[in-house]
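Thread title: Can someone regenerate the structure for this chain?

I was given the following input by a collaborator and told the matching structure tokens would be attached. They weren't. Posting the sequence so someone can regenerate them.
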Amino acid sequence: MKILVTGATGNVGRMVVDELLALGVSGIRALTVDPAAAALPAGVEVVRGFVGRPATMPAALAGVERMYLAPHPASAAEVCRLAAEAGVRHIVDMAGAKGEHWQAVEDAVEACGVAYTHLEPGEFMSNADLWAPQIRAGDVVRDAGGDVVNAPVAQEDIAAVAARVLLSPADHVGRSYELTGPEALSRRQKVAAIGRALGRDLEYVELTGDEARSLFTSLMGEYGDWYLDGLAQLAGHPQPAVSTVADLLGRPAMTYEEWARRHSDLFR
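Best answer:
Regenerated them for you:
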């Protein structure tokens, strides 16, 4: 059995490779734009390519039975068509909430006729890197939308789910799995959890109006307004935690504080 992991040096894709190896899987093929720099483990077949350049895909897909598809909406339809032509029998894609930006990925997967499983994570816990410069500089975090609540998920858990679904496709064909962490938290609660993980007492300072817009423009450039608009929408529709990760893995999903503890170097 050959499993193709696309985006294999990305944040989630690399973890999918590691999860498959930990489960004793052989026959892993990893797609990356720079095989020499990828530093993937021995035993992994590394091939050059990128889902955003479909012309690089046919060689990577040869002989593949199952594929983890990294999200790239613009090229998803062509990549999935090539996968179907190559004889791929199951695609596990990472997309997002239905009806939003990543819907094009799910639509492309379903249209190609290959059996599929959709993974629909919400916000990644790693988005806390937005606060990392302030936390490295001191104990005050200036932010907006402090009471906005969602249930972010650890990328490690997304990868673990992807690996297990790839190994038992018959149990998951045609399913869509919303993936969250185990707890719904406000932004100020997330900052407090990071503080506990670091052994520090972090102060959350709420910004509004022009101050908030100025901060997020400085952090995210042209996407600052988009991010603030997203927070405003989420304020009216808090995201609850769901148990999908624990149900599929047979263990609890990683908490926010545990994630911060594991990634404490980001904040030091």
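The first helix runs from residue 13 to 22.
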